[in-house]
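[Target chain]
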Amino acid sequence: MLEIRDASFDEKQVIDRVADIHISTFQGFFLTFMGKGFLKQLYLSFCKHPESGLLVATEDGNTVGFLAYSGNYSGLFKYMIKTRLIPFAWYSAGAFFRKPKVFMHLVRAFLKPSETKRNEKYVELSSIGVDFCCKGKGIGTQLIDALKQRVDFSKHEYITLETDAVDNEAAIHFYEKNGFIREKLFETAEGRKMYEYRFVGERQ
């Protein structure tokens, strides 16, 4: 039986499993390159930050999917720098040695939430992944439905997410199927074309 619930920061095995699913889901992506230790610190931060969260899908006691989100993305990154700077620096060291250009990419990643700060309140769907052995079971949709249920749309204007605009048809179809509307196309500093999607829920 599948269960969707909030992960706790003291569930080390769950955080470890979330990092594994991230690595298998996002092969070749920047955060994956940073390594498993970095990812564990990242998802631990989602659990501990008061305006963020980490949803996990469990089946027969096994973690098979996750969704990370934040209602204050800028605050989350400030929290990460303030409370977990040393662990992040430690786990980043190996990536820096392998590829020195990673440093500027990481700096831009940490500065981005402040640079894109908006007047309205919203929830950022930061990351979602499902174990490959469980694809096609609707677990991703159930994770998104659980997030929609947790968001108070009387306080937040929308849920937003960003996804690649090129060679990413499956993910684009998935988000659109789950009610997300394409807001705009933009390009990152690295020249990566991205779509921003939004889901606007009903106000109570």
